[in-house]
Amino acid sequence: MTTYLVTGLVVGSVYAIATLGIVLTYSSTRVFNFAQGAIAFALAITFYELTVDHGWNPRWAAAVTVLVVSPLLGLVLWAILFRRLADAPSSVRLVSTIGLWVALPPLTGLIFGRDERFAAPSAVFDPPHQYEVMGVGVDSNDVAVIVVAAVAALLLTVLLRATPFGLSVRATVDAPSMAATVGVNTSIVSAGSWMISTTLAGLAGVLLGTQRGFTLPQFTLLILGCFAAVVIARMHSLPLAFAGSLGLGVVQELSKSVVVGDFLDQFFERQSVWIRGLPQIIPFTVMLIFLLAYRGLGQERFSTDTRRADDAPTVEDLDGPPLAWWRRLLPVAVVVVCVLAAPLVLSGLWEGIAAKGLALAIVFLSYTLVAGSGGMLSLCQISFAGIAAAITADLATNHGVAIVVAIPIAALVVVPIGLLAAIPSLRVGDLYLALATLALAVLVDNTYFELPSVNNFDQGVDVPRPEGFGDDLPFYYLLVACFLVVALLVRNVRRSTTGLELDAMRSSEQAVATIGVGIVRSKLVVFGLSAFVAGVGGALFATYSGRASPEQYSVLLGVVWLAVVVTWGVRSIVGALLAGLSFAVFPQLASEHLTGAWLELPTVLFGLGAIGLAREPRGVVHQIVHGRRTQERARRQRARLRATPSPVPAGVEGGGA
Amino acid sequence: MTATAGAGLVVEGLEVSYGDVRALHGVDITVPAGSVTAVLGANGAGKSSLAAAIGGAGPVDRGRIVVDGEDVTRWPAYRRARAGVAYVPEGRGVFPHLTVLDNLRAMLRRAVPAADRADALARAMDTFPVLHERRRQAAGTLSGGEQQMLALARVLAAPPRLLVADEMSLGLAPRMVDVVFDGLRRAEDEGVTILLVEQYVERALDLADEAVLLRHGEVAWAGPVGDARAEVRSSYLGG
User: Fold this and answer.
1) Which positions in chain B touch A173 (Cβ < 8 Å)?
2) Which residues pair with A36 in a beta bridge?
């Protein structure tokens, strides 16, 4: 047991270091950094390259990585991205760092190559000393990690509590515009916080890499653990973040112990599933428990309530008359004609790829519902899709149900799961909801998807295409038809009373509640419907490849999906269509024309697209339709920003202007 | 610049808009150094926009803002504060989650040279002893009047060159309104140039040397306070 306690403290210490960074930047800039793990990964690889490939002394390499490269990276990211986010609507603040999370690891691969990376020499003690503590062998490097984390936490606390910079940070956290009027340069405060945060990410990265290896899954696990710790800390408490991280690490490692394993084996009689998933499940179960147990998390929902919804019309939109009807419909018509006529120019393979894209587009319409109409950022749509695909496969292959019957049944089965996912949204604001849905997706990933009957030894289960649609061409047109039907459904939901209520809710939940609209019902309806739509799309997606295998529906892929959808426009049906097609087509193009690390270029582009939302929150489709006007608006906004360098001109918003 | 010699604050042709909504159309105001000018006007006349523009917390489309002969129009808020412009925004000009002590530290850090900081802190506490009693309490838990005392304490402990006070008496009990005006008078005695935005017209005119009447974002009238009362009456009631 003691062994697990020690390794647990080591893992927890690494969580703690990275988590402190997330909490710091969220407090001082209100930007939640989903990309902290990705940043840690990029910096860990930098360290690896310096030591292994360039033969630097590991201690020097670690010092340079953590103290020079990390803050520089923070400064650069602040200058090109985080700085712009201070004024952005909350959905954009969320999605931009998700985009960075998506883009950064493959970008690291592009820069440093995608070689297999084995253990690098330790940056602290090499070879480590061995001690014996309470009958357990302890490594001096383990001790070093714990000490480093404690020192980092202590330094950060002292910095915030006892230095002028700390006072400026705390003043800025409290009231940004006030801080500026008493002489605090808030740009320096926010740049400084980001530099400290990336430094902590670099430190966590180097430590994790030397302890656990330089592979991406290790860092994904790291970041998921950090998110749980951040929730425990209620986004702002550094001591709670530190203690929560340590606790999580210990519990997570203990779950690997033989005692727990034996108990679970007896209890569930199915060892492979639970043992493999447990360490991943724990942070997220903890996170869900805290999300539901903490009181007052919902207040954040109201405090951000006053912010403009990202698609709310602005005064700038009043310039000139509204677009003529034909200009609004023209892009839709062009897209429909192109989709219908596409097989005339496409070869057999590409018909299939396009069909796959259409299936994805149907899944993406579920984002149009839940995020576009509902304004709720859900990261578990991919789980709905995956569960429906697995159920469809089971029904069709093992129970002989016709595929056209199996798909709707499967989609209906995921509706209750969708309602379950909606529960946090009734309590908490959009950031917590994003984390809760992410937690749900991780849970599904590591439990249901690990079931032998679903996973089938990573083979997946066969899903036949519908009778008579086996060839790619008829299959393509079948999917065009399906997409149009679902698109019509989405459009009608939007125009229904529920749709109107959702529109109003996006602008202000408080205002909607005061006119007697039940928020609960609207949210449940939109989540349930979106689960159904995602289920249909997910099952159809499986019929393309003829196989429903969980790896096609992994959490991280879901994050990339979100990035693609928001890039094209989360409010737009055409946006969902283009997102689906591009998600199918770009990787295929890449696999035909690119090699090695460049294969991941599409992922980089998807991530950069989401980052680009900081410039145009309404997505590419909106930009194409309203192009000139959008640019005009952006130009004015920049002019305005130059005139008012303070991040939030709160003092004037409610003023007697 | 000849017209502005000896002026603490000069505002020339100030235009402010929020999107397409114009708040100020070419406002000109001159406040002689060390004097108090009251800015009066109905809701929506542009008073707060004017105050925010001078404080650096609001947008400026066109025009110039000159403090003690220095053109600060393009300066960000923090630079103006460091140059001696103290702007107390509408509502409560404090950091609600910081303690009273940290509030004063944050406010005084850029207003006083390092050597004098401890003294300034002590002076601020002496001005309003209740602040000393509550120095470890979060400023947001103070009463409205005490919060304004905190804002005033900063002004009195380290007199700025220019104080822009936007409705400091808003929502206060009458006794606390007395405290605020008393504090402002002491600031005037210290030689601070004051631009005072107020709803309590009579009190403001008692304190001020000159008055400016804003209407629909324009200066409707400006002159010495002696002539202001009749103007105000016709402006507020006769519109």
Assistant:
1) 97
2) none
